[in-house]
Amino acid sequence: MFTDVVSALEFNLLSPPILFFALGVVATLVRSDLKFPEPLYAGLTIYLLAAIGFKGGVALSKAGLGQVWLPALGAVAVSALIPVWSFLVLRVKFARVDAAAIAAHYGSVSAVTFLAAVNFVESRGVPQQGFMAALLALMEAPAIICALCLARSGGPAGEFSWKHQAHEALTGRGVLLLIGGLVVGLLAGERGWKACEGFFGQPFQGVLALFLLEMGLVASRRFGDLRKAGWFLILFAVLAPLLHGVLGVFLGHALGLRGGDLTLFATLCASASYIAAPAAVRVSLPEANPAFYLTAVLAVTFPFNLTFGLPLYHALAGWWQGA
Amino acid sequence: MFTDVVSALEFNLLSPPILFFALGVVATLVRSDLKFPEPLYAGLTIYLLAAIGFKGGVALSKAGLGQVWLPALGAVAVSALIPVWSFLVLRVKFARVDAAAIAAHYGSVSAVTFLAAVNFVESRGVPQQGFMAALLALMEAPAIICALCLARSGGPAGEFSWKHQAHEALTGRGVLLLIGGLVVGLLAGERGWKACEGFFGQPFQGVLALFLLEMGLVASRRFGDLRKAGWFLILFAVLAPLLHGVLGVFLGHALGLRGGDLTLFATLCASASYIAAPAAVRVSLPEANPAFYLTAVLAVTFPFNLTFGLPLYHALAGWWQGA
Amino acid sequence: MFTDVVSALEFNLLSPPILFFALGVVATLVRSDLKFPEPLYAGLTIYLLAAIGFKGGVALSKAGLGQVWLPALGAVAVSALIPVWSFLVLRVKFARVDAAAIAAHYGSVSAVTFLAAVNFVESRGVPQQGFMAALLALMEAPAIICALCLARSGGPAGEFSWKHQAHEALTGRGVLLLIGGLVVGLLAGERGWKACEGFFGQPFQGVLALFLLEMGLVASRRFGDLRKAGWFLILFAVLAPLLHGVLGVFLGHALGLRGGDLTLFATLCASASYIAAPAAVRVSLPEANPAFYLTAVLAVTFPFNLTFGLPLYHALAGWWQGA
Amino acid sequence: MSVLTVVCESHARDAVCRLFTQAGARGWTLHAVEGMGGQGERPGDIAEYANIRMETILGREAALQLLEELHQRLFDRFAMVAWISQVEVVRAQKFAGPASG
Amino acid sequence: MSVLTVVCESHARDAVCRLFTQAGARGWTLHAVEGMGGQGERPGDIAEYANIRMETILGREAALQLLEELHQRLFDRFAMVAWISQVEVVRAQKFAGPASG
Amino acid sequence: MSVLTVVCESHARDAVCRLFTQAGARGWTLHAVEGMGGQGERPGDIAEYANIRMETILGREAALQLLEELHQRLFDRFAMVAWISQVEVVRAQKFAGPASG
Ligand SMILES: Nc1ncnc2c1ncn2[C@@H]1O[C@H](COP(=O)(O)O)[C@@H](O)[C@H]1O
Ligand SMILES: Nc1ncnc2c1ncn2[C@@H]1O[C@H](COP(=O)(O)O)[C@@H](O)[C@H]1O
Ligand SMILES: Nc1ncnc2c1ncn2[C@@H]1O[C@H](COP(=O)(O)O)[C@@H](O)[C@H]1O
Ligand code: NA
Ligand code: NA
Ligand code: NA
């Protein structure tokens, strides 16, 4: 298995998306004035989410919906449970609200990490069924709701409304583009994909690379806060994804996932949200300190998953399926 | 002919652009926070207009300019006449300025509806000569000028300057990109197209799909005003495009248009402007109520043409040519 | 050689990028409201610089780094020397600061002119080694620093800090994207290029065409200031690039450059900066009049190089290599 | 009349608009901005991490009370600054008090 | 001196600029904004349907007169609000009266 | 308290921010704008050629002095206008004097 890991690592670290991510980090470190305007970031996000949803829907139109429900159930469950143990561990060092806030991020998922994983799996030519984008959409909310409940179990904390959270979970722009793209792909099928491949297909990896340049800028701006975060949190931010990734491989395998799908499921478990979770936490747990959760997620876990985590989960998945 | 209509309808409704349009409508209905930043909208518009112009110019460089003038004359005439009868019908229920304002929109044309029609015709593999983009540019202004005259025939109404209207008609960004793209395509020819096909050609349908997602958002935001518009206007907003589409088929055929060109001409006649006409009407007929003309055009006619009108006109054109 | 020039000129003037540039000029002349939103401009710039760097890096990974250092040294030297004689000539008519400011622009380089040259060379199928993007990055700063020294030799003039200039020279967004793209390309190699070709490769020429439409708008807005600039400066703005282009051919040949690389080197020498140099001059030589340097560079030299200069340098390079 | 200006993180948008409405504001104007403040730089390349700047015209009394509300209920929760300036308008009734229909 | 601020639908831009010039304004600053008002929400994703916010510095008298002009001639025609604030500047002559050359 | 507003060409950004900091401003807000002025139109499609609008809240004395500094040191060098308005804030101490840590 060792050579698998090394080969996967090398493949990943020398892929354009990861190299552009590193370039973004370097740009921040040398204090370059490189900046993406907000509409460019928004445009790239809309493109990437719609594309991944669309592609997943087309794949789903071939694979059939029957195989989705079991992994979907597992995904929701794991996403709701991760915050529980994360919360308990984090309570060792953190106040209740901070622990709950951080836990919410690790139970939820990162679409960009998922995109990088899809790209990795595709570049390596590993077959996948293509419905994992649906799981990405499903795993965003449960963790957030669960963690907010954990925080509130200790008394009233900021605003919280079930109705609002449920609405966000179903209509937030990320979820909407993913699920919407999936349905479009399902209905349009192979013919629709052929028509749009020149936009949603061929340029995809390159767009992802450019987008990760921006993410490198965003992540590395948080490096300065690492000191405030402290060693305990940094350690957590590396070990939690590792643990969740390993767990994802075993659980996904038990749920019947194979090949690229297993790697993607493990990556989803390991990834930590940096858009949906912070938004919910800012509104519902305003006392929680963003210097903790944002730094852990953006400055440590995201780069870790992107560079080392991804190939590790992939190698482990391959080995476990071979075993 | 019935099976033709059904097959064309099914083909159209399951095409990615229309599905993404529907997704945009759904996003508004569920009150999602999905939004396109303005520069993204502007960028997509510039791309789409330049691409359609360029492509048309290249086609024109092969077809020769000789065949254009007769359809062009017909296009200008029909665009100037549509407001006349529309105005008379609308006067039944509306004040002079409102009737004239609405009439202006129906005589003028919608570039996005045209783009969807080009895409539809191309996807179905119907041959076209490619100079219809020129007619799109020509049909924008006459209706507006004619309708403003109708409104003013009842006394002074806001600002109006022939010079200003003529300048707009020739240099407005939409017209400029279309005509400019046509000339570029004419001069650059096949060689130029080959060089730029990877940008202006292959991604085109996908970009259109993404753009129609935004148009779904924009159109559906107007649904709330449908009640204010009233049944008379809603009926008008469905029947006018139908009538003009049918008229377009007969007239276009008489002018010598065949194949895809005929469908495109009918669509141009049926389509209603939602950029150029509102801009002119806001400045020159400020007393006209936008809740009427914008709602009719955006919430009814545009979606109707996109979904049902297009395949209908196409089937009718096919049947009439076969007859 | 005459027929070579004519054929190269015709090829260039009828290529989509140049035609779109002309369209931009026309749009300004007819006072159209066509405008690119800033984020679109920024996005196109980021794309173009990253793409050209990436591509260059991939080429470099095949060619090896050994051949770069000599041309690189020559490039830095010529970029530092051009301001010297330019300054002396300009002093005939201009005050010290104005002469130095203009000289800085002509020693430095224009990335867009370079992009157009790459495109021209590639469209003509002329082989190139691909490391010229590195020279583009190296030639931006020396001229600016040298010209600021010339200006200051006459006494204190505004703010100037070696540290600041050096930082800018290494981390300015243009240089960072170019050098960063080069390194990414070097590391990712052919496999990386294949993965991203659908984004950084195929659409490239079309994107450049669209971008030059915007540059046509920008350049032609300066036409109104031509009168203020005066005949001496306009003449300088045509003759300087010509002279530097010719010099670039001879020098580049002596440094061992051949084929497309020689054309690109000549174009670099001939081109004049309109982003990096104005920024530095605004801060360090605030007394210099932008109506002089911006007009010369944007309204004369940039269009001249794009349309006539490029094919001239190319034909001369071909002839000199044949001789 | 007064203009109340709020610069805050974009996550606070809904909460601020709710307070505006409660205070009787009948309209507002907003756009994205970059910022620098006690919580560091906010470069604004991601809408979710960026600032917005909101303005609402309303009567002086209502404005002062709204500022106090913002202070009490949102200043601790979000990165936010707010200020009131005195302005002159025509059609003051357009901005006065809660909409009656 | 005064600053006159106008928030209006983008279609009004030319008309407003013309009044600015007539009032003797020698410059102005503008940008796109989103808005909420009597005519509903204006989300600003299409420039033609969006709002702009314009500011011009000019003398107090000129500002008051300009506001009145806007009121008389444009308030009924376009979605628009405008207000005047008192400000302090240096180089007041830069903003005073019609340009002489 | 006062708000000092600066509209200037984007090249002046660093220089203006430096003066802000020296004057004791603890924060500011900025965004890109289009402009029209003595030096002609600035359409703002290229960031480097565009204008920015910056605002900083600070005490009246500090604001007046900062305006004077801007006048002395930057007005000749960059396309720039600036003005001060009087405003009311809560938590005035947030904006008062140089940060103490
Ligand atoms: N003194 C100030 N003047 C103007 N804007 C400020 C000031 N302080 C803070 N801001 C704005 O308010 C936001 C939040 O401030 P803070 O909570 O201090 O980080 C900043 O990002 C700035 O946009
Ligand atoms: N009270 C207000 N405060 C600030 N801006 C307003 C206010 N009312 C209206 N606006 C702005 O003016 C535009 C037009 O207003 P209205 O004509 O009332 O729809 C709105 O879209 C807002 O941007
Ligand atoms: N009277 C004014 N009111 C508002 N903004 C102005 C005014 N004059 C100039 N400006 C702004 O300041 C910038 C520079 O002005 P100037 O140096 O006069 O060209 C312009 O581009 C405008 O954005
Ligand atoms: Na997770
Ligand atoms: Na029509
Ligand atoms: Na040069």
Can you describe this structure?
The complex is a heterohexamer, with 3 copies of chain A (323 residues) and 3 copies of chain D (101 residues). Chain A has 323 residues and is mostly helical. Helices cover 80% and strands 0% of the residues of chain A. Chain A has 16 helices and no strands. Chain A has helices at 2-13, 16-29, 38-63, 69-91, 96-107, 111-123, 132-138, 141-152, 162-171, 173-201, 204-220, 226-229, 231-254, 259-270, 276-284, 290-322. In chain A, helix 3 (38-63) crosses helix 10 (173-201). The longest helix of chain A has 33 residues, at 290-322. Chain A is globular, with a radius of gyration of 19 Å. The termini of chain A are close together. The mean pLDDT of chain A is 93. Chain D has 101 residues and is an alpha+beta fold. Chain D has helices at residues 13-22, 60-73; strands at 2-9, 28-37, 40-42, 51-58, 80-86. A 5-stranded antiparallel beta sheet of chain D has the order 3-2-4-1-5, with helices on one face. In chain D, strand 2 and strand 3 (40-42) form a beta hairpin. The longest helix of chain D is centred in the middle third of the chain and has 14 residues, at 60-73. Chain D is elongated and about 40 Å long. The model of chain D has no long low-confidence stretch (mean pLDDT 92). Chains D and F meet through strand 2, helix 2 and strand 5 of D and strand 2 of F. The complex binds adenosine monophosphate (3 copies) and sodium ion (NA) (3 copies). Residues 82, 106-107, 109, 244, 269, 271-272 of chain A line the site of one sodium ion. One adenosine monophosphate sits between chains F (7, 35-39, 42, 51, 79-81) and E (25-29, 55-57, 95).
